[in-house]
Design a protein that fits this description.
- The protein is an alpha/beta fold.
- Helices cover 44% and strands 16% of the residues.
- It has a domain of 275 residues: Queuine tRNA-ribosyltransferase-like (TIM Barrel), CATH 3.20.20.
- The protein has a 5-stranded parallel beta sheet.
- A hairpin with a 6-residue loop joins strand 1 and strand 2.
- Its EC number is 2.4.2.64.
């Protein structure tokens, strides 16, 4: 059978947690196989800051993300076509996913005007006008040649309320049809629609229902992780995964904090992306199970240990915390060394979750991870609630129990004092 007859994306659930909604899968794309759950490093301009493609391959990164809006501006469609697509242009042989440019409606709102036709941007580089329509977004992504493309969606700030949220959701549905119509390379590239609806459960449900009527190979959940409360965040994720089909991959856009990844895998998400690992590296911070090490701090000056004894990345094999403290934020190479470690950490975390799901030991993995991640702090209530919603009960927090008992005791004493006072008034 020729490759053109094989779908450009197939997805198979290979294991499911018997307790939560977590699942491990295998996604087969034109350029590589991708094991899920997966974290996708962000190479906005066709490159990760401070990391070469060969270094990503050494870390066994299977898929990365590029941005349609930025790549459409620079280098532009003509250059990408001349190069034979982004894979050849950047020297990356594995899979690529491209965002549609819709997020820039929020991040570059002062430069954008939105109507039914599309989004009119002023370029942040030369102030020129650029109209990004659903059709033009797909045209750029076809030139990029990404394995997975996103529809252009109407994105509003997560804290937006009122009729604008429903308008954006309905427009997103209309725009996906225009994207599907404009898609010229369906034999090579797969288009994902994006679930919108803000923090409104009925709107999210309506959007999922409408998008499932389209012939697509996967779904993205958008419009979250932008300033809403964590309680609202996890509930919207849970609502979406509860309605999305089992046999297609689910991508949660813009999420990358370790605890968030673990919670959202438990809620049934398969794919994630975020600039956080490389961005925090530029500030001298290294990711570990307990959170972050701020290597600029003086306490690391004489620390001759690697960032993480369990990590096998090239940075941890060769360099000490002391050396990284010495160069952190002062030398450009520090960004590279810490980015390599931080991406390795994210990928290792996802690999550990996949293994735990396949062994049907995921609930215990979650409990062990949260105990390490919040070793010195109470586990946030939203995490406990989110995990309890999928039948993972975290051990009680003794410190919180003591605090609750103290509050209860004080309240009981206060009530007792009030009762005594009332009795004295009544008998006087």
């Amino acid at each position: 059978m020729s490759s053109s007859k094989i779908p450009p994306l197939t997805y198979k659930v290979v294991a499911e947690c018997s307790v939560s909604k977590a699942r491990a899968g295998l996604m087969t794309l034109r350029h590589s196989e991708v094991n899920t759950p997966v974290f996708m490093p962000v190479g906005t301009q066709g490159t990760l800051k401070g990391i070469l493609p060969d270094q990503l391959i050494e870390l066994n990164c299977q898929i990365l993300l590029g941005n349609t809006y930025h790549l459409g501006l620079r280098p532009g469609i003509d250059t990408l076509k001349k190069a034979g697509g982004l894979h050849k242009f950047m020297g990356w042989p594995r899979a690529i996913l491209t965002d549609s440019g819709g997020f820039q409606m929020v991040s570059l709102l002062q430069l954008a005007e939105i109507d039914e036709h599309g989004v009119n941007f002023r370029s942040p580089f030369d102030n020129s006008q650029c109209m990004l329509t659903p059709e033009h977004s797909i045209q750029i992504q076809n030139a990029i040649g990404a394995d997975i493309m996103m529809q252009l969606d109407d994105v509003v700030k997560t804290t937006t309320t009122g009729p604008r949220v429903e308008e954006a959701m309905e427009r997103t549905i209309r725009w996906v049809d225009r994207c599907i119509e404009a898609h010229a390379r369906d034999d090579d590239q797969s288009l994902f629609p994006i679930v919108q609806g803000g923090l409104d459960v009925p709107l999210r449900q309506r959007c999922v229902s409408a998008l499932m009527e389209r012939q697509v190979r996967g779904f993205a959940v958008g419009g979250l992780s932008g300033g809403e409360s964590k309680h609202d965040f996890w509930r919207m994720v849970d609502v979406c995964t509860g309605y999305l089909p089992r046999d297609k991959p689910r991508y949660l856009m813009g999420v990358g904090f370790a605890a968030d990844l673990v919670v959202c895998v438990a809620l049934g998400i398969d794919m994630f992306d975020c600039v956080f690992p490389t961005r925090t590296a530029r500030f001298g911070c290294a990711l570990v199970d307990s959170g972050q090490l701020n290597l600029k701090q003086p306490k690391y000056k004489l620390d001759m240990e690697p960032i993480d004894q369990k990590c096998h990345c090239s940075t941890c094999k060769r360099y000490t915390r002391s050396y990284l403290h010495h160069i952190a934020t002062n030398e450009s190479v520090s960004c590279s060394l810490l980015s390599i470690h931080n991406i390795a950490y994210q990928l290792r975390l996802m690999g550990s979750m996949r293994q735990a799901i396949q062994r049907d030991e995921f609930p215990q993995f979650v409990k062990d991870f949260m105990a390490k991640h919040f070793k010195t702090d109470p586990i946030p209530a939203w995490i406990r609630e989110a995990l309890a919603a999928v039948n993972i009960q975290l051990p009680a927090d003794p410190e919180k129990e003591d605090q609750d008992l103290e509050k209860k005791t004080k309240a009981e004493k206060r009530q007792e004092t009030e009762n005594v006072a009332e009795e004295q008034v009544a008998t006087s």
